[in-house]
Task: inverse folding
């Protein structure tokens, strides 16, 4: 195998690792607790846009459960990054503007991970690559 073939495989493996680890981490740490403890979470969730606690929590669950699952699978990856990035920016800039970089480091790191995925795309080891046409560039 020549060097460029190795580089392409390494890039695709790196993107796969980034997608799977970032997606599962967000799902495990934030998404599943919200989904599994809905009644507790709905009482504690911040509602910065006054949409109501239920709708705000449903939107957070969408961004932290469904979107990471799509990213892990490699389906509509770039599109699935957008709700996550919006949620992270709202949390860091609107809901918790008083947080120092130290206090918000987890959120900022997730922002870096999902922005990187948005920019780089899913790589060739994604279900997107198995479909032609419309999913290919999502």
Result:
């Amino acid at each position: 195998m020549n060097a460029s073939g190795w580089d392409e495989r390494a890039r695709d493996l790196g993107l796969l690792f980034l997608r799977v680890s970032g997606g599962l981490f967000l799902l495990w740490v934030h998404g599943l607790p919200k989904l599994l403890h809905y009644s507790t979470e709905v009482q504690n969730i911040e509602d910065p846009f006054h949409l109501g606690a239920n709708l705000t929590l449903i939107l957070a669950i969408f961004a932290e459960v469904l979107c990471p699952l799509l990213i892990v699978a490699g389906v509509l990856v770039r599109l699935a990054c957008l709700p996550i990035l919006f949620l992270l920016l709202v949390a860091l800039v609107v809901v918790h503007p008083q947080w120092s970089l130290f206090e918000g480091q987890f959120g900022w790191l997730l922002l870096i991970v999902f922005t990187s995925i948005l920019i780089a795309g899913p790589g060739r080891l994604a279900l997107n690559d198995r479909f032609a046409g419309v999913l290919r560039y999502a």
Remarks:
- The mean pLDDT is 90.
- The longest helix spans residues 3-36.
- The two ends are 30 Å apart (CA to CA).
